[in-house]
Amino acid sequence: MKNKTYDKRKLRRHPKLILLLILLLQTAIPPSLSAMDLMEAYARAKKADPLFGSSIYEHEAAKTLSKQGRSLVLPRLQISGGTSRINFITAPVTYVDYTATTLGVQFSQPILNLSKFYEYRQDNIRETIGDMKFAWAEQDLIVRVAEAYLNGMAAKDSQELVDTEKKAVLEQLERARRTFQAGMGTIIDVRDAEARYDAILSKEVESKYNFEIKIQALKRLVGVEPDGLSFVRGDLPLVVPEPDSLESWIETSKKYNPTLRYYAYSIDSDKEEVRKNWGQHFPSVDLLAQYSKTNTNNYLETPSLTYWFVGVQVSFPIFTGGYISAKVQESRAKFEQTKKTYENVVLDNTQKLTEAFLGIKASIVKINTLLTAIRSASTALQADKMGLIAGVRTMIEVLNAEKDLQDFRRQLGQARYEYIMNTLKLKLYAGVLSEDDVFVINQWLQTKQEGLQTKQEGLSVSFNEK
What we know:
Blueprint: H1 2-12, H2 15-27, H3 38-48, H4 50-62, H5 65-71, E1 76-86, E2 98-112, H6 114-181, H7 187-222, E3 231-232, H8 246-256, H9 258-278, E4 284-297, E5 300-315, H10 323-390, H11 395-430, H12 435-443, E6 445-446, H13 448-465
Antiparallel strand pairs: 1-2, 2-4, 3-6, 4-5
């Protein structure tokens, strides 16, 4: 006891030694443990994902639609001019060669044009539709990144579980061989352990390639291959949805889900399309003004002539071959089609929302049940191992117990990933998913480097406390 006290005092007197120990521990951390967390993956995906990049430019294009629509009802001013040399080959003597010049300024302002007015309103709605598409693209990116990231984590977990099971089976195989050579075991135990070991080798290859595939899928989103991945904390918070009412989430989705709002605005846009085509049946009235200056008239040179006029132009479509009526019928049919599509999208979104809502609750129950099963399986495995030593258990029973334990651990990891994904999807289909949720989910994950740093911090704190 005195020696320990002396050592602690010695360390306390040498803070530089403590710092050196911590630095040595930090430098001992392999570079691969510096994992890319979920927040970093999401930030990289916002810059590297081609699909999201495409949606950014699509949104930029949509922002111009209201300006395009407004231009239809605003005045137009146009200046035109020209100069040309006219040389006569055959003509009366009064026709002499000359240089013709013209200059004109035209002004027009729609006074009454129902078709353009409804098109202006339609373009404003189409810009809002573009906003909804981009809002969905932002939320969809979060889910796609999280899904790819968690798939990579699941594949990594599977690799580690296979490796653990491989070591356990190899240990039992070597034990079976030793006991058989000593004349205390049977060849059946050896053959069974060998078969289990060969099967594990096959699973090891499969898990390795599956991990590579998942990492490449994540790389496609983030643009770089991650140096490592996080793992789910053992204290993963299991919380039921708030509010704990499916109907409330459905009502929220109708208000905020970008896809539902996209189709709702599409109905309004198609309604304006009907009105725009219908408006072509009516006359249009425009205010016109023009200033002109020229020195030519019917190919004859004249003194410079300058004039201006102001007037009203009325245009009335009497007969267009049935085109306008056909366009109205087409737009009405598409309007009804969009309404039915909206109904289907609402039902589809409600179904997915329900699956995510119930999936969260099912995952919580499943996780708690599997935690209990793992504790029981671990106890049973230890009992079987002791029973094998005592001669009351067989090698096959120990291998089966080991397999059951690893299966439960694999199911637990999958259940945790399902819980996280259902949490994200519930907010996605409700239309309230944001970057804040990425931050929250990232707090549920931990890199191996963070775990080692926590231990180092605990070590330094314990020194300081002494």
